[in-house]
Amino acid sequence: MKNLLLIITFTLLAKLSFAQTVDFDLIHYKGFDFYSTKSEIIKKLGKPQKVYDPKYECGFLSTDTQDGIFLTLDYGTIKFTGNEKENYVLEQVDFEKDHSIIVKYGDRNLSYKTDFSELIDIFGDQIKEGFGKKLDGAFIVFSTGYEDGLRIYITNGKLTRLEYWSPC
After folding, report:
1. What is the pLDDT of residue 10?
2. What's residue 168's pLDDT?
3. Beta bridge partners of 83
4. DSSP 97
5. Distance CA 78, CA 53 (A)
6. 42 CB burial (10 A radius; 0-12, 13-18, 19+)
7. Are 140 and 147 in contact (CB under 8 A)?
8. Strands 78-83 and 108-110
9. In angstroms, rounded to a whole number, what is the distance separating the alpha carbons of residues 19 and 142?
10. How many CA atoms lie within 13 A of 80 on its CB side?
């Protein structure tokens, strides 16, 4: 019985993982591309509240496993992580703490007002498979042709957070 449950779980995860994709080139925040330079970010947003090494043990933003030191520019509800060589990725957006934040995905707005049905319109019907009647949780939408992606959190059917995701 335990093995059957594991098989069903992995099958559902595999279907969710490969059913929809995200194009990082379509993601913009206040005129920034998903990948931006440190100087562009600081010029538009000012000095971050904190700058630190996120100390990820693995993944594409890990100082230990990648080429160079990675730093997080932490603006409270928005975080960019990267380095001068790789640029900085829009790593985390917390819509729940700041309802005024809008991230563009192509011509669509992603905000705290974005509901689950809009996310389905943007990312596809397959994201429904991970949720029952209670629309709380997270799912990963993988980037087109790559191993990384975007983790999307919803609470009570509303978008609450976006995070860059990469495998270990």
Report:
1. 42
2. 85
3. 87
4. T
5. 16
6. middle
7. no
8. unpaired
9. 9
10. 27
